[in-house]
Design brief:
The protein has nine helices and 16 strands. The protein is α+β, with helices and mostly antiparallel strands. 45% of the residues are buried.
């Protein structure tokens, strides 16, 4: 894997703050809600102790992989769309498995710093129905909002991670509008369904100013997977399907005028793929 600069090295083991980019008339901003600490070997079962010993830049002092938790704000012509909704004002700690500890709660304040309130959000478009992307959907602050969910994801909602989430998601049904592959859900924002992480996992392609941004949700959890797209996450519904999609996605992210957005990518959420050194690598947009 190509060597990182000291500045990039630091950013790989801290959660992201607010970051914004401009795509022509569209502004796109990462909206922090919190962070998650993950156990690297259970998360990426194809890795080894040697891999992480060689790449300590991804880990905190406790040996956990650091990931951001939040949402993506898309603003165009006075309108505002949110992609995903963070984890919400809560903390959860797991005794074993891939998840160490996750917490949220900062999303409303982050929106305020961007000059927005939850009332400004006309819709929340979900990449998938996991709890770290649904959090604020269950809160009264977003009670007015329409929720956009990929059709196969909504059809498979009874197989979510826990019965509690199944029941909470069912309560959202009156405000859910299902969307299909290729559908434009907001000016310049198109959904594409890429099953593998979940049965109907969605990515959102945002175009403007001659560039495109691919918000790829949980198709990739960490920048380290860009160099090794065959490493699937233990959270993936179909490990082979996500690995195949990730290989195609990495090639796509290397194309001219293409930006990626990795919602869990520590403090390097916006970036390009560049082929140098031993293979493809994630290059932060503002590095």
């Amino acid at each position: 894997m190509p060597e990182l600069t000291a500045h990039q090295d630091t950013r790989l083991n801290r959660p992201s703050g607010i970051r914004s980019i401009q795509l022509g008339d569209t502004k796109v901003s990462y909206v922090p809600d919190g962070d998650v600490r993950l156990r690297p070997l259970p998360l990426l079962p194809d890795t080894t102790d040697e891999v992480w010993a060689a790449h300590p830049e991804y880990l905190d002092a406790n040996g956990h992989l650091v990931a951001s938790v939040g949402a993506l704000l898309v603003e165009h012509g006075g309108r505002a769309l949110l992609i995903d909704a963070g984890f919400g004002p809560q903390t959860y700690e797991a005794p074993d498995g891939p998840l160490g500890v996750i917490h949220g709660g900062a999303l409303p304040q982050s929106l305020a710093e961007l000059g927005r309130t939850p009332r400004d959000i006309e819709a929340v478009a979900f990449t998938h129905l996991h709890s770290d992307h649904l959090g604020w959907a269950f809160r009264p602050e977003f009670a007015h909002t329409e929720y956009l969910v990929a059709e196969p994801e909504w059809a498979g909602r009874d197989d979510l991670e826990s019965q509690e989430i199944v029941e909470r998601v069912a309560a959202l049904a009156p405000r859910v509008r299902t969307v299909t592959d290729g559908q434009e859900v907001f000016p310049g924002v198109t959904v594409r369904i890429t099953p593998g992480h979940t049965v109907g996992h969605a990515e959102y392609v945002i175009t403007g100013g001659g560039r495109r941004l691919i918000a790829f949700g949980d198709a990739v959890h960490s920048p380290i997977q860009i160099d090794r797209p065959d490493w699937s996450s233990a959270f993936d519904h179909d490990l082979a399907a996500t690995a195949g999609h990730r290989r195609r996605l990495v090639a796509e992210l290397a194309e001219p005028g293409t930006i990626g957005f990795g919602i869990h990518f520590a403090d390097v959420v916006f970036g390009h793929v560049r082929h140098d050194g031993d293979g493809p690598a994630w290059k932060p947009l503002d590095a």
